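Morning F.,

Quick status update on the modeling queue. The single chain you submitted on Monday has been processed. Sequence for confirmation:
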Amino acid sequence: MKALTKHLAALTIGLCALNTAAHAEELDVMTSGGFTAAFQRLSPKYAQDSGDSIQTILGPSMGKAAKAIPNRLARGENADVVIMVGYALDELIKQGVVDPASRVELADSRIGMVVRQGAPKPRIDSEEAFRKSLLDAGSIAYSDSASGVYISGKLFKKLGLEQQVGSKAKMIERIPVASVVASGQYEVGFQQVAELLPVPGVTFVGKIPESLQSVTRYAAGVPRHAKHPEKAKELLSYLSSAAAQPIVQSTGLDSVPR
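C-alpha coordinates below.
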Protein backbone atom coordinates (compact mmCIF):
# COMPACT_ATOMS: atom_id res chain seq x y z
CA MET A 1 0.00 0.00 0.00
CA LYS A 2 2.84 2.37 0.92
CA ALA A 3 4.58 1.56 -2.34
CA LEU A 4 1.38 2.31 -4.28
CA THR A 5 0.95 5.62 -2.40
CA LYS A 6 4.53 6.64 -3.19
CA HIS A 7 4.03 5.69 -6.82
CA LEU A 8 0.84 7.75 -7.08
CA ALA A 9 2.54 10.73 -5.42
CA ALA A 10 5.45 10.52 -7.82
CA LEU A 11 3.05 10.23 -10.75
CA THR A 12 1.14 13.30 -9.57
CA ILE A 13 4.36 15.33 -9.28
CA GLY A 14 5.41 14.17 -12.71
CA LEU A 15 2.07 15.09 -14.26
CA CYS A 16 2.24 18.55 -12.64
CA ALA A 17 5.71 19.06 -14.04
CA LEU A 18 4.58 17.98 -17.49
CA ASN A 19 1.58 20.30 -17.25
CA THR A 20 3.82 23.21 -16.29
CA ALA A 21 6.22 22.43 -19.13
CA ALA A 22 3.37 22.14 -21.60
CA HIS A 23 2.12 25.61 -20.70
CA ALA A 24 5.54 27.26 -20.37
CA GLU A 25 6.24 30.03 -22.84
CA GLU A 26 9.17 32.18 -23.86
CA LEU A 27 8.40 35.82 -23.17
CA ASP A 28 10.15 38.62 -25.05
CA VAL A 29 10.62 41.59 -22.72
CA MET A 30 11.91 44.93 -24.00
CA THR A 31 13.21 47.13 -21.19
CA SER A 32 14.89 50.51 -21.09
CA GLY A 33 17.91 51.34 -18.95
CA GLY A 34 16.38 52.67 -15.76
CA PHE A 35 14.50 49.49 -14.83
CA THR A 36 16.99 47.04 -16.32
CA ALA A 37 18.96 46.31 -13.15
CA ALA A 38 15.76 45.59 -11.22
CA PHE A 39 14.37 43.41 -14.00
CA GLN A 40 17.58 41.39 -14.28
CA ARG A 41 17.28 40.54 -10.58
CA LEU A 42 13.55 39.87 -10.59
CA SER A 43 13.15 37.88 -13.80
CA PRO A 44 15.09 34.72 -12.77
CA LYS A 45 12.82 34.15 -9.78
CA TYR A 46 9.72 34.70 -11.87
CA ALA A 47 11.02 32.29 -14.51
CA GLN A 48 11.75 29.68 -11.86
CA ASP A 49 8.34 30.00 -10.23
CA SER A 50 6.30 30.19 -13.45
CA GLY A 51 8.26 27.81 -15.66
CA ASP A 52 8.36 30.43 -18.39
CA SER A 53 11.63 31.56 -19.95
CA ILE A 54 12.40 35.21 -20.53
CA GLN A 55 14.38 36.85 -23.29
CA THR A 56 15.49 40.35 -22.30
CA ILE A 57 15.89 42.90 -25.08
CA LEU A 58 17.52 46.23 -24.17
CA GLY A 59 16.77 49.58 -25.74
CA PRO A 60 16.07 53.21 -24.82
CA SER A 61 12.52 54.44 -24.33
CA MET A 62 12.80 57.04 -27.06
CA GLY A 63 15.10 58.56 -29.64
CA LYS A 64 16.33 57.83 -33.14
CA ALA A 65 18.57 54.86 -32.32
CA ALA A 66 17.63 51.65 -34.11
CA LYS A 67 17.52 49.82 -30.76
CA ALA A 68 14.99 52.24 -29.23
CA ILE A 69 11.87 50.36 -28.15
CA PRO A 70 9.40 52.31 -30.32
CA ASN A 71 11.62 51.77 -33.37
CA ARG A 72 11.95 48.04 -32.64
CA LEU A 73 8.18 47.69 -32.45
CA ALA A 74 7.71 49.73 -35.61
CA ARG A 75 9.96 47.24 -37.45
CA GLY A 76 7.72 44.40 -36.32
CA GLU A 77 9.96 42.94 -33.61
CA ASN A 78 7.96 40.89 -31.12
CA ALA A 79 7.57 42.01 -27.53
CA ASP A 80 5.27 40.45 -24.97
CA VAL A 81 6.13 43.20 -22.48
CA VAL A 82 7.63 46.67 -22.84
CA ILE A 83 9.12 48.46 -19.81
CA MET A 84 9.91 52.11 -20.38
CA VAL A 85 9.54 55.72 -19.32
CA GLY A 86 5.85 56.29 -18.54
CA TYR A 87 5.18 59.12 -20.96
CA ALA A 88 6.90 57.23 -23.78
CA LEU A 89 4.67 54.24 -23.05
CA ASP A 90 1.65 56.54 -23.08
CA GLU A 91 2.63 57.67 -26.57
CA LEU A 92 2.64 54.03 -27.76
CA ILE A 93 -0.77 53.57 -26.17
CA LYS A 94 -2.02 56.67 -27.99
CA GLN A 95 -0.69 55.24 -31.26
CA GLY A 96 -2.56 51.98 -30.66
CA VAL A 97 0.64 49.94 -30.29
CA VAL A 98 0.17 48.98 -26.61
CA ASP A 99 -3.03 47.80 -24.90
CA PRO A 100 -4.07 50.61 -22.51
CA ALA A 101 -5.74 48.14 -20.13
CA SER A 102 -2.40 46.40 -19.57
CA ARG A 103 -0.53 49.47 -18.29
CA VAL A 104 1.06 49.15 -14.83
CA GLU A 105 3.33 51.58 -12.99
CA LEU A 106 6.55 50.05 -11.69
CA ALA A 107 8.95 52.54 -10.08
CA ASP A 108 10.17 56.11 -9.80
CA SER A 109 13.70 57.04 -10.82
CA ARG A 110 15.64 60.10 -9.70
CA ILE A 111 18.73 61.70 -11.24
CA GLY A 112 22.11 61.19 -9.62
CA MET A 113 25.70 62.25 -10.13
CA VAL A 114 28.99 60.33 -10.37
CA VAL A 115 32.68 61.20 -10.51
CA ARG A 116 35.61 59.01 -11.44
CA GLN A 117 36.65 56.59 -8.69
CA GLY A 118 39.26 58.25 -6.50
CA ALA A 119 38.28 61.80 -7.47
CA PRO A 120 37.03 64.21 -4.76
CA LYS A 121 33.28 64.16 -4.23
CA PRO A 122 31.76 67.60 -4.79
CA ARG A 123 28.98 68.83 -2.55
CA ILE A 124 25.53 68.72 -4.11
CA ASP A 125 23.36 68.76 -0.99
CA SER A 126 21.85 72.17 -1.75
CA GLU A 127 20.98 74.17 -4.84
CA GLU A 128 23.87 76.55 -4.18
CA ALA A 129 26.39 73.74 -3.69
CA PHE A 130 25.10 71.90 -6.74
CA ARG A 131 25.33 75.03 -8.89
CA LYS A 132 28.94 75.53 -7.79
CA SER A 133 29.81 71.91 -8.61
CA LEU A 134 28.57 72.44 -12.17
CA LEU A 135 30.59 75.63 -12.55
CA ASP A 136 33.73 73.97 -11.14
CA ALA A 137 33.47 70.84 -13.33
CA GLY A 138 35.82 70.74 -16.29
CA SER A 139 33.41 68.61 -18.32
CA ILE A 140 29.89 67.26 -17.87
CA ALA A 141 28.21 64.20 -19.38
CA TYR A 142 24.49 63.43 -19.40
CA SER A 143 22.30 60.79 -21.00
CA ASP A 144 20.29 60.77 -24.21
CA SER A 145 17.16 59.57 -22.39
CA ALA A 146 14.63 61.28 -20.13
CA SER A 147 17.09 62.56 -17.52
CA GLY A 148 19.39 64.07 -20.15
CA VAL A 149 16.52 65.77 -21.96
CA TYR A 150 15.56 67.39 -18.65
CA ILE A 151 19.11 68.41 -17.77
CA SER A 152 19.88 70.04 -21.11
CA GLY A 153 16.43 71.49 -21.73
CA LYS A 154 15.36 72.68 -18.27
CA LEU A 155 17.89 72.22 -15.44
CA PHE A 156 20.72 74.36 -16.81
CA LYS A 157 18.19 77.07 -17.65
CA LYS A 158 16.59 76.88 -14.20
CA LEU A 159 20.01 77.45 -12.62
CA GLY A 160 20.90 80.23 -15.08
CA LEU A 161 23.90 78.25 -16.33
CA GLU A 162 23.11 77.69 -20.00
CA GLN A 163 25.98 79.87 -21.20
CA GLN A 164 28.49 78.85 -18.54
CA VAL A 165 28.15 75.07 -18.88
CA GLY A 166 26.77 74.65 -22.39
CA SER A 167 30.15 74.35 -24.07
CA LYS A 168 31.47 71.75 -21.64
CA ALA A 169 28.34 69.59 -21.36
CA LYS A 170 27.78 66.66 -23.74
CA MET A 171 24.92 64.24 -24.36
CA ILE A 172 26.18 60.65 -24.40
CA GLU A 173 24.33 58.39 -26.80
CA ARG A 174 23.67 54.64 -26.44
CA ILE A 175 26.21 53.88 -23.68
CA PRO A 176 26.05 54.42 -19.89
CA VAL A 177 27.11 57.91 -18.85
CA ALA A 178 29.12 56.49 -15.95
CA SER A 179 31.33 54.58 -18.39
CA VAL A 180 32.74 57.77 -19.94
CA VAL A 181 33.33 59.20 -16.47
CA ALA A 182 35.11 56.01 -15.40
CA SER A 183 37.39 56.25 -18.44
CA GLY A 184 38.30 59.85 -17.63
CA GLN A 185 36.67 61.39 -20.71
CA TYR A 186 34.34 63.47 -18.53
CA GLU A 187 34.73 64.78 -15.00
CA VAL A 188 31.15 64.38 -13.79
CA GLY A 189 28.16 62.49 -15.12
CA PHE A 190 24.42 62.62 -14.64
CA GLN A 191 21.87 59.89 -15.26
CA GLN A 192 19.13 58.10 -13.41
CA VAL A 193 20.53 56.52 -10.25
CA ALA A 194 19.62 52.97 -11.26
CA GLU A 195 21.70 53.35 -14.42
CA LEU A 196 24.72 54.80 -12.60
CA LEU A 197 25.10 52.30 -9.76
CA PRO A 198 25.98 49.14 -11.77
CA VAL A 199 28.93 50.75 -13.60
CA PRO A 200 32.40 50.12 -12.12
CA GLY A 201 35.11 52.75 -11.90
CA VAL A 202 32.99 55.61 -10.59
CA THR A 203 31.93 56.98 -7.20
CA PHE A 204 28.27 57.76 -6.69
CA VAL A 205 28.06 61.30 -5.28
CA GLY A 206 24.33 61.27 -4.61
CA LYS A 207 20.98 62.36 -5.95
CA ILE A 208 20.69 65.95 -7.11
CA PRO A 209 18.70 68.24 -4.76
CA GLU A 210 15.03 67.33 -4.57
CA SER A 211 14.04 70.89 -5.50
CA LEU A 212 15.83 70.37 -8.83
CA GLN A 213 14.79 66.78 -9.45
CA SER A 214 12.91 65.39 -12.37
CA VAL A 215 11.30 62.13 -11.27
CA THR A 216 10.87 59.62 -14.06
CA ARG A 217 8.04 57.13 -13.65
CA TYR A 218 8.71 53.72 -15.20
CA ALA A 219 5.71 51.82 -16.46
CA ALA A 220 5.04 48.70 -18.49
CA GLY A 221 2.46 47.33 -20.85
CA VAL A 222 1.59 44.59 -23.32
CA PRO A 223 1.78 45.37 -27.06
CA ARG A 224 -1.39 44.55 -28.98
CA HIS A 225 0.46 42.03 -31.16
CA ALA A 226 2.17 40.21 -28.27
CA LYS A 227 2.37 36.45 -28.75
CA HIS A 228 1.60 35.65 -25.10
CA PRO A 229 -0.55 38.48 -23.68
CA GLU A 230 -1.98 36.57 -20.71
CA LYS A 231 1.43 35.34 -19.58
CA ALA A 232 2.73 38.88 -20.06
CA LYS A 233 0.07 40.26 -17.69
CA GLU A 234 1.07 37.70 -15.06
CA LEU A 235 4.67 38.91 -15.30
CA LEU A 236 3.57 42.54 -14.94
CA SER A 237 1.52 41.65 -11.87
CA TYR A 238 4.65 40.19 -10.28
CA LEU A 239 6.90 43.14 -11.19
CA SER A 240 4.48 45.62 -9.61
CA SER A 241 3.79 43.50 -6.51
CA ALA A 242 4.77 44.33 -2.94
CA ALA A 243 7.03 41.27 -2.92
CA ALA A 244 9.19 42.77 -5.67
CA GLN A 245 9.74 46.14 -3.98
CA PRO A 246 12.82 45.33 -1.84
CA ILE A 247 14.70 44.33 -4.99
CA VAL A 248 13.38 47.35 -6.91
CA GLN A 249 14.62 49.67 -4.16
CA SER A 250 18.01 47.96 -3.92
CA THR A 251 18.82 49.03 -7.48
CA GLY A 252 18.37 52.75 -6.75
CA LEU A 253 14.71 53.07 -7.73
CA ASP A 254 11.88 54.29 -5.52
CA SER A 255 8.64 52.38 -5.14
CA VAL A 256 5.53 53.98 -6.63
CA PRO A 257 3.25 55.32 -3.88
CA ARG A 258 0.18 53.07 -3.70
